[in-house]
Here is the input.
Amino acid sequence: MRSRAFSIVALVLSVSVAVSLTDLYKVQEGALVVYTTPALQSLLESLVVPAFRSATGIDVTLVYVSAGEQYNRLRMSGGHPEADVFLHASPLFLEKGYAAGYFLPFQVANVSVPPDFASRNVTGGHVWYAFAWSPLAEVYDPALGAPPDLAFINRTFGFPHPLLSNNGIYAVLFFENALGNLSKTAGARALAHTVVQPANARANILGIADHTFEVTLGYEGVTLFYQHQGARVDFDLPLLDGQRFVTPVIFSAALVKGHPNPRALDFIDFLFRPEIQSNVNMGPFYFRSVLPPYSDPIGGTPLPAPGAVTLNYDWSQWATLESALPKYVIGG
Here is the structure.
C-alpha cells in the first residue's frame, strides 16, 4: 500500500462529477495539498514528493484536476481552501486568482529566479514563480516525414481544449501572438481541421500515437516522456509561415491564500533546490531548469535554436488571452 506521501487523489473530473471538498479535507487532514497537472505527474511522484518528504517528514497529497476545474474548486472553497499550493502549466489562472484575492504574494528563498520565470513585482514579492519549463512543440505523425507549416495546415489537427487545459491556453497564445492576423488565420484553419479536443497534455500526445489526429501543439517534455516509452510521435519547434518559434511553457507555483498547511511555502522553496533543478531535465521528466546550469533534456530540441523567434508572454495581460479562448473551442 502506498504511503500517504504518495496518496494521489486522481480527480480528473468531468462537469457531471461532484466531489465533496470537505471529504477530501477530512481524508487528507494534516497533509500538504497540492493542486497540479497530469503533465507534472512523473516529476512530482518520482522526484519532488519523495525528496521533500525525506527532507521534512511532511506528507504531500497531489490532486490532479484540469486547469479550469482547479480554479473553480478554489473559488468554491471560500475562506476554507483545501489546497495549499497550485502547480500550474501556465500562469493564467494564477494571475486571475491573484486578482480575485485567492493567492498570496511571496518570495522564494535563497535563489535569484530570472525575470522571464517570475511574475511582475507586487507588494510582498511575486504572484508566481516558474520552477521548470518546456518549449511548446509541434507534434506530428512520423509518417508525415516533417512538421507541416501551420500556416497552411491541411492535416487532421488536435487543438487542445483551451477552457479545460493549460495546453490549450498555450496553443491559443501561440496562434494569437506569433504573427498577428496571419497566425490567427492559421489558428482558425487548425480548428477547422479539428474533430477531437484533448483535455490535458498527455491525452494530446497520445492522440498522435493512436492516430486520432496527425498534428497538434504540445509540450516537449510530455512528448519526450511518451517517445521514450515507445510512442510513435515526432516533434519540432512550431513552424509558421517558414518561421520557427520558441514558446516557453512555464510550470509555475502559487501560494493559496488561507492555506491550511504552514509548510506550504517550504514546499515551493524546495522546488528550487539544486537536487531538484539539476534533475528536471533527466528521464523520465525531460523538462528544463529555470536556474543555471541549463541543459537540454535527452532528445530535446537544442536551444537556443538559430533563427527561432521566442514568444515571451506578459502574463499580467491574462484577461486579453482569456477573452480569446472561447473562439478556439469547436462550435464556440
